[in-house]
Amino acid sequence: MTRFQTTLLLFLLTFLPVFPGEGMWLPLLVDRYNLEEMQKKGFRLSAEDIYSVNRPSMKDAVVRIGGCTGVVVSDQGLVLTNHHCAYRSIQSHSSVDNDYLTDGFWAMTTDEELPNPGLTVTFTVRMEDVTDRVLAVIDEGMDENERQAAIDAISRSIAEEAMEGTRYDADVNAFYFGSEYYLFVYEVFDDVRLVGAPPSSIGKFGGDTDNWMWPRHTGDFAFFRIYADSDNKPAGYSEENVPYSPPVSLPVSAGGVREGDFTMVYGFPGSTRQYLTSQAVEIITGLTNPHNIRLRDERLAIMGREMEKSDTVRIKYASKFAGVSNAWKRWQGENRGLARLDATGRKKALEDKFAAWVEDDAGRRERYGDLLPSFDSLYSRLEYYTLPMEYGREALYAIESVRFVNDFIRLTDAYLMNPEEYDADFLMVLLETATENFFRDYHRPIDRQVFGKMLEMYMDNIDEEFHPSFFEKVIDDFDSDFSLFASHVYNSSFFVSREGVDELLENYAADMAELIEDDILVRIVRDIRSLYIDRVTVAWHEVNDQLVPRYRLFVEGLRMMEPGRAFYPDANRTLRVAYGQVKGYSPRDAVYYEKYTTLSGVIDKNRSGISDYVIPQKLKELYDEGDFGSGSVDGEMRVGFIASNHTTGGNSGSPVINGDGQLIGINFDRVWEGTMSDIMFDPEKCRNISVDINYILFITERFAGAGHLLEEMTILQ
Length: 717
Ligand code: ARG
Ligand code: GLU
Description:
Blueprint: H1 3-15, H2 30-33, H3 35-40, H4 47-50, E1 62-65, E2 68-72, E3 78-81, H5 83-92, H6 100-103, E4 105-106, E5 114-115, E6 121-129, H7 131-135, H8 144-163, E7 169-175, E8 180-189, E9 191-197, H9 200-203, H10 207-210, E10 222-228, E11 242-243, E12 252-253, E13 262-267, H11 278-309, H12 311-341, H13 343-359, H14 362-368, H15 371-396, H16 400-417, H17 424-440, H18 444-461, H19 470-477, H20 482-492, H21 498-506, H22 512-518, H23 520-561, E14 576-581, E15 596-598, H24 599-607, H25 617-625, E16 638-643, E17 655-657, E18 663-670, E19 688-692, H26 693-703, H27 707-712, E20 715-716
The structure holds arginine and glutamic acid.
């Protein structure tokens, strides 16, 4: 291809309408933007069935649970979500003797269901476009800070108005960088109990080996139940509470999926960045991702080594390890996907097209003329602070004790600054709880090694200008040996053992303040904090604050430039609908992946001898018996399937719904080759991964013997 042809091709690529499957849409606007296309693809219901304020609709069955999504599947408040979403709860009820992570947990009666303090379930009562009311308070003369302050104030009063006289929560959220605003009214339940979870050998089958990958064979599901008071209203945990009776629960379709079937994912996607400019994509692919991946390589290696040595440590760090490894692997897929798509090139082509469109008209020149050049200069300033900023989060504050000390002194500082107004006993309670929580899952040898390694990598990769002053001491007194320094710190600080902190707390009031300030970790944390405030965070935010209004203008311009195209807003933890179809894909040259997996694939992976593929004997027996009951589709037990829905983190546990509004699976992941979809969606490669509802029913009934849960549900063939 000649240069001209390449440019032309890029130009055409960026000119295409929204890709099929792309987009996370507001349920409220489905009628306007999506319904026609959805119906063409096989959706047989109306927009009112998806979202309505006048009558029960699907949205009443979709809940936020922790950072995930879940779906109500029975009239007794039974909720399905992912095993990995329930992981922390399962872990918190587990010990070496009662290891629910390993063995699974099934409550055979409601009495056995386990409460999870802190875990809530949130329903969306309604949403409303409040753009006009919000934007009425701003005027052209305001700078960005004044604008934001005015918007915060009106947003608060709109939310308060919505909550008045109710027990609801409400939020006003910005869309398109503050061009539009929507009000969301929520009902939050805080008595949520664990009902059932398969053993990790099923719920986390494939572990980190298979995470973010297809073909996948994970039974990634768990059940919770919502409890309410005797009036069916939210209430804190109480033995008196009863199972919640919801307005809607989704029926289940056990008929099995076929190629091309319509699918819809209804949930709470966390965050995407579809509108980033080319410079931002360059920073992510060239700096942020590679460095963060390397930092996590080291952390994972340290954790993994120690977890292998002891079961206690393995349980304590199971959830932490999974969390660290999850983003680590996603970033690698994202970088490859963005490179394959030539995301930077495409973004540049779009920017060139935008520039030409602006140039074409005097009014546009006036409004958007400075826009693209200003991205250049802002991003080159931002780039300067990028690594210090990332290493702050991914190296310094990745050290557990550093985070703990940081939280601890934040509490004591608040007290010391205002001793009269602060209740000292209350402070003690806060400190004791924080201490208790921190040490429950803490293993000092891991943290000490992470401390040494993270500081060493900081030293090697970050400009001297951003070095905390204690580095000098390490250079002079420890010959730049950070692991030696780590031993010194972990031998002398109060904060790296439960006993140490208890000793501090006993001396409380007398001379705690002095002891704290003398502690070596406290001095290190204060050093880091002042460095970050003085030289990194403020500067970084200052640049970022200038980017927001630029993006607002950019997206406004893009929408004018392509008036025929529907633009979806970036994900922001609000309720969204994505739709697509069941579809295989080609991950790479000469390879094609089918759309669903079966139990035979589980057995086959098990034969490899890889530890992530160990399965319970009972599952093998069930497979050998070959009787999958009503869950069998074409004589097989379906395990997982893929479809072209646009999803992201937060969509875990989301119901995957067919054209008739029935539940066919639970979303839990994306394919490796499509993980760049947070930044750029590719219809050829982007697939969401779901656990088939048939596998959920099969494991629950046949493997766990919890068939009574199936009786609560409405199951259609
Ligand atoms: N990748 C999925 C998500 O982003 C699943 C993560 C949990 N599983 C794991 N093996 N770490 O949350
Ligand atoms: N596993 C993710 C979650 O916890 C969903 C996968 C994705 O990022 O798409 O939300």
